[in-house]
Amino acid sequence: MKKRFIAAAVPVLVAGSLAATAPSTSQAAGGGRAAKPAPPVASAQASAATAVTPCTGGAQKKAMTGGHADWIWTDSTTTVPGTLQQFRGPQQGKDTVFVTLTAHHTYIGDNGDYARVRVLLDGVDMTPTTSAPEYLYADGNYGSLAGQYCGKVQGGGFHKVRVVLDSYDSDGDGYDGAYLYNPMVHVEVAN
Q: Would you list the domain boundaries of the chain?
């Protein structure tokens, strides 16, 4: 199965026209808060070029899903239960690994603290294909998250994908902790 990401056509208004912007709820912009509107784009072509980072692979070889169907809490660094997925790499060439991460709710235990959700491929942070790394902030409290990640592997040995939740007590008051509810990953390996 070949993956394709299609950028939506974005209307560009000519100078002197009225422009309406809708705030984004990107997790990277601050834990579910509305982000500042993006600056105007010079052309439809430039808008389409910046809409997605493409990640393509060939025929699907394997698909795995896992996660934790409840709340998870940490005050340090923790692998999210159920998100460790293991697969064998190719004998020759490279395989493409696609990961989709979602969580119904995110929460930070203390105002001023923050957390970070990372997707690791063989212990290395995967590059998001559609967003910046998933940071969670206390102001705004409950939020949700979704992200798409892509990487390449080579070598016939086993490779691992896992999700890690990091919590930071940035104000130093000793009250920290990050929560995720129903974090899930879907991993696809393709030629």
A: 60-190
Over residues 113-121, the mean pLDDT reads: 88
For the entire predicted model, the pTM comes to: 0.67
The owner of tokens 């879907």 is 186
Question: Other CB atoms closer than 10 Å to residue 159's CB: what's the count?
Answer: 20
Using one digit for the tens of pLDDT, what is the confidence trace for 28-67? 333 333 333 343 444 445 444 445 567 888 999 999 999 9
Tokens read off for 98: 């696609």
Residue 80: band (very low, low, confident or very high) from pLDDT cuts 50, 70, 90: very high
**Max Cα separation, the chain?**
59
Give the integer Cα–Cα distance in Å for 135 and 58. Answer: 31
Question: Which CATH code fits 60-190?
Answer: 2.60.120.1340
End-to-end, the C-alpha distance of the chain in Å comes to 9
The whole-number average pLDDT for the span 158-174 is: 85
Secondary structure letter of residue 134 according to DSSP: E
- Burial letters for 58-90: b for 16+ Cβ neighbours within 10 Å, e otherwise? eeebeeeebbbeeebebbeebebebbebebebe
pLDDT at 25 over 80: no
- For 136, half-sphere exposure in the C-beta direction (CA atoms, 13 angstrom radius) is 27
**Rounded CA gap, 137 and 179, in Å?**
11
